[in-house]
């Protein structure tokens, strides 16, 4: 039987699912401290404390690794905005409020660890990093027009947490530094557990109000943007990261979107009304287009890299 729950009704029906998944998360999550992932013996004072200020020659990271690390860190830095947006769409008490607090506390560790690593190892310009942080957090993030409510938010954070996990893991691999790779593996493991929490709650939303859930998923997939969009140098840095496989269309489709849709059994469900079927058809058409776009993108990237290799040779 078709349902069309209000946001409050949906929040209330999902609360037991949220509570159960908090218990599952707490039983699974590993406690860790950011300071255990930073090579403190490499640190030294900057000029304000009688030492030496940063110089580009001090960094051991490649340009791609630096760009990816900065982008990932600034993304994590915007946690106050994410907390606000989630609080606006979820409840601030009960199981929902408990989860928001726990999620925020865990996410905050990511920025602490990454910044301490970058500053301690002098991997990036700390002044430029702070200037970019000020700009990015001042801008904040805001819910796009037409986007809001429980299902929209749950669907978005499910895909976003998994996308962030992929980005952290590939960044760790290009850093060519076992310390950075270990730290980013730890952070990526957190992101994966967060994704599982949201994915489970969204799965329950499909069972409770399938039409509303598929409409949200379709809208989110068609309009998905990483939460770092809009940060300083976003376009330039994004192009470089895509070009070198930190996070590209193939990863987005094959490692993020499709695995989640399969878990939700989106294309196997038989509980949609005509309204839900229209949305699912729209999603299928978009995914077909995205698959074609992936092939075109990869062919274009291959040509660009070949031309660059020829020039270097």
Task: Walk me through the topology.
Layout: H1 7-28, H2 63-77, H3 79-89, H4 94-120, H5 126-139, H6 150-174, H7 178-208, H8 210-222, H9 234-243, H10 249-263, H11 274-312
Helix pairs in contact: 1-4, 1-7, 2-4, 2-6, 2-9, 3-4, 4-7, 6-7, 6-8, 6-10, 7-8, 8-11
InterPro entries: Fatty_acid_desaturase-2 (IPR005067), Ferritin-like_SF (IPR009078), RNR-like (IPR012348)
Cofactor: Fe(2+); Fe cation
GO molecular function, one term: metal ion binding
Please, could you describe this protein's structure?
This protein has 313 residues and is an all-alpha fold. It has one domain (7-310): Ribonucleotide Reductase, subunit A, CATH 1.10.620. It is 71% helix and 0% strand. It contains 11 helices and no strands. The termini are far apart. The model has no long low-confidence stretch (mean pLDDT 94). Pfam families: FA_desaturase_2. Homodimer. Fe cation 2 binds at residues 107, 161, 191, 194. GO terms for molecular function: metal ion binding; stearoyl-[ACP] desaturase activity. Keywords: Fatty acid biosynthesis, Fatty acid metabolism, Iron, Lipid biosynthesis, Lipid metabolism, Metal-binding, Oxidoreductase.
Structure at a glance:
With 313 residues, the chain is mostly helical. It has a single domain (7-310), classed as Orthogonal Bundle (Ribonucleotide Reductase, subunit A), CATH 1.10.620. The protein has helices spanning 7-28, 63-77, 79-89, 94-120, 126-139, 150-174, 178-208, 210-222, 234-243, 249-263, 274-312.
